[in-house]
Amino acid sequence: MSFSIFSIPALPARLFNCLKIAFATWQLKKLPTAEREQAHHALAALLGNARGMTMKIGQLIASGSEQTAYQPLITSIKPLPLSALLPILKREFSQPLADIFPEIKESAAAASLGQVHYARLADGREVAIKIRYPGIVETVKAELQLTDWLPSAGPFKRWQFNSDDYKQTLRQQLLRETDYRIEAQTQQRFQERLSIKGLCIPKIYPEFCKASVLVQSWETGCRLHEVSDWSKKQRLEIAKTLLVTLFQSLFVHGEIHGDPHSGNYLFRLDAEENAITVLLDYGCTVLISKPRRLALLKLIDAYCNQQPINGLQCFVAMGFDAQKLKHLENEFPALCAALFLPFTQTKAFDLETWRLANTLQELLAEKRWWFRAAGSADLLLLLRAFQGLTQHLTTLQVSLPWGALLRYAVGESVLQEARDFVLPELSVQMFNNQPLLIKANKLCVRVYENDVVTISLDLPAEAALELESLIPAAVLAEIKASVEVDLVKITSSLQQQGIFPQVLFETVTERKLCRVWLE
Amino acid sequence: MRFVTAILHPVENLDRASDFFCTALGFSVQNQCAYGALLENGAVTIRLVAETTSPQVPLHLELYSKNLIDDTQALLKFPEIILLTENSQKNSYRIESCLQAPHGVMLTLYQEFNEDEVNIVPDLPICLDWENQAVACLQTLLKYLPIEFRQLARTRVTERAEVLAAEQGEITVTLEIAVQALAESTPHFQHPTLVAALHERGIATGTHFHLPES
User: Fold this and answer.
1) Is B54 helix (H, G, I), strand (E, B) or coil?
2) Residue range(s) defining the domain that contains residue B15
3) Which residues in chain A have their CB less than 8 angstroms from residue B172's CB?
4) SS3 category, A354
């Protein structure tokens, strides 16, 4: 199945399309089972037609659902013709295109914000050019404005989800993804940090990367469902690479790949018949600050070694809302035991035996919403990374000892650091409506010009409330001119929600990249 | 709380049925009255109740035997017991005979054998990739352990070996790792035997085993 799209709908049409999607989703729940399959396909077609944010949502559904209707959103979206994208390439490069890329082929891989073309550089190197769809930035911004109208209803309202936090995270992530220079830098960062046997991160060619163009080495391979007939050893190699990559990214480097749908992986065999996993698309990554990741590792390690630990304290240190978690205090040991079961088994863990959703339902019933609402929005992306991992391992039909691989991936020194990490005390104020909760250690401001750090500031976390007075005037003017960053809104959110470790914003101008985050 | 106290079985002639259960099947009468009898053999309790018609549903009883052939012949000496099937193999470890007994009773006599008796080497419960040499070595050395503990040891050693491999970032269990897992998962008093068996096969034992000082 493929979707026939040759242009991005105009903005008014998007609003209409979004309404159609909302209506189709609402109707889906009411349909009898027999008609639901057809309705899923219709909804998938609508999501695919929309591209941008709505297609991303479709991909999210596809990666988290057994419904086959959404799978084409990952692998079979019909790309735009090259001719529709050539003006973008011509605008981004001052030299004639033929001088830089003597050969560019039609695309075979379309995604939510852009599509990939095979090309050859002047020196003969094979590259993949990812080109942003024309008008997609405006489209995404318009869609993000629509999210502001979303009502906070149902469980979202009942369990006091921080909807502003979710909207802000969505906004930051999507706008970040539309700038391929940020993605190129992230990909380079992953390449420098991760040296994992069996993992291939395509090489970036920074000299050709622009806001709407990303150039990386051309990688080949097959999709995950195609490796099911590979040997058990090769499937084990892939599974190990996936596990070690996530554990090392999270616990050692504090930044994980946040878009684990199967379309972002390629698999191939090297000359010795060893399985190689190619990890693509670094547009959506999640930063997890050191105190948060050490708290999580400390908790997992304690459960693995059957050491006493205050799970509630660990989760609060991870950025969970203490007040909401307090409702689950009695269930916490059983909840942690269920969550960390793959790690605590002293043998290869069979994912079929996990049944986490059922266990949580039996254990917490309606109170599970307190747990979900207590976590910040960025933790949803972390959860998604783990969910993606378990789905891929299930597809591979192999079992691995998670605890042992975690120890290997993070190393003894990081484990010891986690064991020595002193958890912040739970204060009485955390359980009352205190005016300001400070869980971050410091505010970090970095400005890069042509990939060189020109400004590097580490400040007390509370300084985040006075962002405007801290940021250098020249940078501030550019930030204020940007529609993506609303400093007043950020400050107001911090005052309301507390100062938790998070990325506050990231802006990219012609030459400068400015990142501000709480650690 | 509700719990099962006995198996109820209707019979036409209570006295004759009670006598059959006691003489042929080793039950003893706990108490008896005109309309029923409570029988037990230390493991199972059966309440026989008098009915005017013969039972519609037979009572299936499973009997453990140390010697299936002899025990089957012994039962066939009782009147009204008919052989239905003899010494049929249900799986590699079990044979059984089926007999039809009076008073609506069906008997299944079975005899079980362990892996040594049937000369079968069970597969290791492996999840990772194993070198053939490692599998063969472990399967051979597990034979040196008492049969009662062998299945547990088989599982523990296999799981431990896979954890050791994963801790080294490997998905393949080598001979060296298998030997280390064997040493870590078996009681120290068995180590001299295992080390001798390993040396006999020219396999290095490393420093993982605990041997008494000579």
Assistant:
1) coil
2) 1-53
3) 233
4) coil
Alpha-carbon gap, residue B98 to A352, rounded angstroms: 38
Contacts A–B by Cβ distance under 8 A: 51
**pLDDT tens, position by position, A60-103:** 666 555 556 666 665 657 889 999 999 999 999 988 999 999 99
Residue B141 inside a domain? The answer is yes
- Distance, in Å, from the CA atom of A49 to the CA atom of A77, rounded to the nearest integer, reads 9
Domain CATH for B30: 3.10.180.10
CA distance B88 to A406: 50
In order along its 214 residues, chain B shows pLDDT tens digits of 688 999 999 999 999 999 999 999 999 999 988 889 999 999 999 999 998 776 678 999 999 999 999 999 999 999 899 999 999 998 999 999 999 999 999 999 999 999 999 999 999 999 999 999 999 999 999 999 999 999 999 999 999 999 999 999 999 999 999 999 999 999 999 999 999 999 999 998 888 898 887 6
SS3 B122: coil
> CA A366 to CA A155: how far, in whole Å?
10
Asked if B186 and B138 sit in the same domain, the reply is yes
**Do B177 and B141 lie in a common domain?**
yes
How many domains does one find in chain B? Answer: 3
pLDDT at A41 over 80: no
Contact B127 A408 (CB under 8 A): no
User: Based on the domain organization, do B175 and B156 belong to the same domain?
Assistant: yes
Nearest CA in chain B to A347: B159
Give residue limits of the domains in chain A: 10-75, 223-435, 442-518
Taking residues A14-37, what's their average pLDDT?
A: 63
Q: How far is A404 from chain B (nearest CA, A)?
A: 5
Compare CB distances from A399 to B127, B164, B167 and report the shortest one's residue. B127
pLDDT in tens, A100-138: 999 999 998 788 889 999 999 999 999 999 999 988 888
Nearest CB neighbour to A408, from listed B127, B168, B172: B168
> Same structural domain for residues B71 and B108?
yes
Q: Which of A344, A345, A405 to mutate to test the interface with B (most CBs of B within 10 A)?
A: A405
β-pairing, B129-130 with B172-173?
Answer: parallel
d(CA B182, CA B150): 12
User: Given the DSSP bridges, would you call strands A199-200 and A275-279 parallel, antiparallel or unpaired?
Assistant: parallel
Query: Of B128, B129, B163, which has the smallest distance from its Cβ to A346's Cβ?
Result: B163
Give the nearest partner residue to B128 out of A236, A403, A408, using CB atoms. Answer: A236
Contact (CB<8Å) A232/B159:
no
Give B-chain residues touching A244 at CB under 8 angstroms: 169
Residue B214 has, within 13 A of its CA and on its CB side, a CA count of: 1
- Residues of chain B in contact with residue A404, where contact means CB-CB under 8 angstroms, are 162-167
Residue B74, domain member (yes or no): yes
A348/B162 Cβ within 8 A: yes
Long-range Cβ contact pairs of A81-89 (< 8 A, separation 24 or more): A81/A6, A81/A106, A82/A106, A82/A107, A82/A117, A84/A6, A84/A7, A84/A134, A85/A115, A85/A117, A85/A131, A85/A133, A85/A134, A87/A134, A88/A131, A88/A132, A88/A134, A88/A212, A88/A213, A89/A129, A89/A131, A89/A213
pLDDT in tens, A377-425: 888 889 989 999 999 999 999 999 999 999 999 999 999 999 999 998 8
pLDDT tens-digit readout, A305-358: 999 999 999 999 998 988 888 888 889 899 999 999 999 999 999 999 998 989
Q: Closest Cα of chain A to B132: distance in Å?
A: 13
Q: What is the bridge-based pairing of β-strands A126-132 and A114-120?
A: antiparallel
Beta strand B105-112 with B94-101: parallel, antiparallel or unpaired? antiparallel
What's the rounded Cα separation, in Å, for the pair A480 and A499?
22
